[in-house]
């Protein structure tokens, strides 16, 4: 809606995990290296955990686009509690026949599939996104399936990606065997302030606008109230651009951001400074001061309004 007003060739701040917008800051670069290392080392299990909205699926999509030729990849993303039959989902992920088949027949079919791929010189990779929804039994089942060898090579490489609950599940004593087979692990943290600035600029540039409409102080506020989580940053940037468009303004200033945040806070939609690491970061850069000022201004405004009301 505001795209042509600013000159964007595509919406810059959608919530899709679009790898075309991938920004490789420190954390995302590390996570990607770990994923690539896990795949290249052709051994064991790779696990990536990370906060909600931190960019895990975006990385997975990027990985899928850049996967070496000799990898046969299956992706499972629907891992809800009703997940049910693991072998059905695995078969679906690799496009294998699964209707009306029982578990044993599906298992045998998948085994044959892996052997055939191995014979062709291909590595079979199963990626499970949203893996925080898997229960311990299913994770253990995955381990057993991924433990099948041909000569000394493993036939299946497993990549699990999920929110922090996955980390908690993996601490269970009955998953020790699984954990011992994890050869590559990384926990993806939110962006730091300097990265958040670059992230916003990056998305604006990819969407075709060389002039960044976001003022630095406005970005500080966005960072402060998102604690560096990319999905929240996107939501706030989208709101800011929509607001500017409505007002016919081309620059997102601290005042605009402050107004948007006040509105969201009033409806309890964002907690500010919930991440102590983000807060420490903000103290160093002075952004915390901007945030405090923002809070003070809002309380002052509120008091004035209340007094006005009381005086009527
Ligand atoms: N490194 C990045 N570069 C560009 N965009 C990113 C990056 N990280 C996250 N985003 C954006 O943030 C939003 C959330 O990302 P994504 O869906 O990948 O998060 P997630 O960690 O998979 O979330 P969930 O925990 O809900 O599964 C998307 O719009 C995505 O494009
Ligand atoms: Mg995701």
How would you explain this protein's 3D organization?
There is one protein chain. The mean pLDDT is 88. The longest helix has 25 residues, at 287-311. A hairpin with a 2-residue loop joins strand 4 and strand 5. The chain is elongated. Helix 9 crosses helix 10 (216-226), helix 10 packs across helix 11 (230-247) and helix 11 packs across helix 12 (254-266). The protein has helices spanning 3-6, 26-40, 56-65, 86-93, 103-119, 136-146, 164-170, 176-180, 193-206, 216-226, 230-247, 254-266, 276-285, 287-311, and strands at residues 45-50, 71-76, 123-128, 149-150, 153-154, 156-162, 182-188. It is an alpha/beta fold. 54% of the residues lie in helices and 12% in strands. The strands form 2 sheets. It has a 5-stranded parallel β-sheet, with helices on both faces. It has a two-stranded antiparallel ribbon with strand order 4-5. The chain has 14 helices and 7 strands. It binds adenosine-5'-triphosphate (ATP) and magnesium ion.
List keywords for this structure.
single chain; five-stranded parallel beta sheet; 14 helices; 54% helix; binds adenosine-5'-triphosphate; binds magnesium ion
What's the short version?
This protein has 14 helices and 7 strands. It has 312 residues and is α/β, with parallel strands linked by helices. The strands form 2 sheets. A 5-stranded parallel beta sheet has the order 2-3-6-1-7, sandwiched between helices. It has a two-stranded antiparallel ribbon with strand order 4-5.
């Amino acid at each position: 809606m505001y795209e042509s007003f600013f000159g964007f060739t595509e919406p810059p701040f959608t919530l899709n995990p679009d790898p075309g917008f991938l920004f490789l800051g420190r954390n995302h670069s590390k996570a990607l290296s770990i994923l690539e290392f896990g795949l290249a080392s052709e051994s064991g299990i790779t696990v990536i955990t990370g906060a909600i909205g931190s960019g895990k699926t975006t990385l997975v999509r990027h990985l899928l686009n850049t996967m070496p030729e000799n990898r046969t990849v299956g992706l499972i993303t629907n891992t809800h509690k009703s997940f049910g039959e693991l072998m059905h989902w695995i078969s679906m992920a690799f496009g294998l026949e699964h209707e009306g088949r029982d578990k044993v027949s599906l298992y045998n079919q998948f085994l044959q599939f892996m052997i055939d791929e191995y014979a062709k010189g291909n590595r079979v990779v199963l990626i499970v996104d949203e893996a925080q929804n898997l229960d311990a039994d299913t994770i253990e089942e995955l381990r057993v399936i991924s433990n099948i060898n041909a000569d000394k090579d493993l036939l299946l490489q497993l990549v699990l990606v999920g929110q922090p609950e996955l980390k908690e599940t993996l601490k269970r004593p009955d998953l020790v065997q699984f954990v011992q087979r994890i050869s590559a692990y990384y926990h993806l943290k939110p962006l730091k302030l300097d990265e958040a600035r670059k992230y916003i600029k990056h998305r604006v540039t990819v969407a075709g606008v060389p002039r960044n409409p976001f003022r630095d102080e406005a970005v500080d506020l966005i960072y402060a109230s998102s604690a560096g989580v990319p999905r929240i940053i996107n939501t706030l940037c989208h709101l800011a651009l929509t607001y500017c468009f409505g007002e016919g303004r081309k620059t997102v200033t601290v005042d605009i951001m402050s107004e948007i945040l006040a509105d969201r806070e009033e409806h309890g939609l964002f907690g500010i400074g919930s991440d102590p690491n983000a807060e420490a970061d903000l103290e160093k850069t002075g952004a915390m001061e901007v945030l405090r000022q923002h809070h003070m201004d809002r309380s002052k405004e509120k008091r004035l309004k209340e007094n006005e009301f009381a005086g009527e």
